[in-house]
Hints:
Oligomer: single chain
Strand content: 5-15%
Radius of gyration: 44 Å
Strand order of the largest sheet: 4-5-3-2-1-6
Shape: rod-shaped
Number of helices: 10
Number of domains: 2
Amino acid sequence: xxxxxxxxxxxxxxxxxxxxxxxxxxxxxxxxxxxxxxxxxxxxxxxxxxxxxxxxxxxxxxxxxxxxxxxxxxxxxxxxxxxxxxxxxxxxxxxxxxxxxxxxxxxxxxxxxxxxxxxxxxxxxxxxxxxxxxxxxxxxxxxxxxxxxxxxxxxxxxxxxxxxxxxxxxxxxxxxxxxxxxxxxxxxxxxxxxxxxxxxxxxxxxxxxxxxxxxxxxxxxxxxxxxxxxxxxxxxxxxxxxxxxxxxxxxxxxxxxxxxxxxxxxxxxxxxxxxxxxxxxxxxxxxxxxxxxxxxxxxxxxxxxxxxxxxxxxxxxxxxxxxxxxxxxxxxxxxxxxxxxxxxxxxxxxxxxxxxxxxxxxxxxxxxxxxxxxxxxxxxxxxxxxxxxxxxxxxxxxxxxxxxxxxxxxxxxxxxxxxxxxxxxxxxxxxx
Length: 432
């Protein structure tokens, strides 16, 4: 059904409803005109028709102008006794309907309550007999004439409050639904960004290593076939690890009813030796140096530290053509500083290591900065004065527990990955 058809249907329903209410009020007015002052019954006089027509004519506009409708119907009730009719609850039925509409539809509740109270008081005064004594029948009739508009006003006020309450509940439900949808969209976007970072880190790292190992194998294939076979075996192992990590990361996108995937813990600095060993197999000699006392990191900070080291060394392998790199961990009371520097033997841009000539712009440094910012840290990157490139990140640490004096770590001792000087613990801390 179109909007025009719906509007026409509502309009017809409104007219039918108003016609039924007006006709009922008109019939009640005429019924009230049947009762005479001497408590006898007779056909309604012409004055009763006049009062009914005048008081009922304003009822269709009571929703737009409720106060005006109440005033008009109350004035009609005041004229009942002067024209020789008996003021009864039946003959003031239009005033009762107008009092209900005024309490329900007036803009101000206080104004509506005051108008209904005044109308009831006016009808009470108008119902007082002008001659003769005041009998108990007159008193009961006067009370009914004044009470009916008041009861209609109370009923209209309660209906108004009920509708306002339901409207407020619907508005709160709508806002809650909107905020819930917004929160769900925000979390989905954050999760997508996080998964994109994970995919970038593991793909860039593993594919770079695979490329380096394939290059070494191709170079040694004719001159040193045994070393070429070793490089190919390492290439198979590297690509296997890449597939496993890719499968685990993409598994985060599965729905709840899909097949379960392995739930390995997120990598951290505890897996740093294995990471450095993979770069050594790719031909990069990585030295690790620690200062201070290492301690457990929160999961988010631990993962961020691991990914920053991984991405920085991946950029060294891809873009710096460096023979060696230094990873330095400095543990302070409230932060850990991670520095990755290379010896700069090769072409390196000073803005982003992923922006090499002939390559599309990358997001390595951007992703590392976002990761550091997400856990409350910061990251700086740039060329070193003595040559090469350096990435330095400062990540927050939880408060350190009190330890006996003398436990503070002294200067760290260098450690090399397999193939160089064997890795060993620093004094006061362990090479993670």
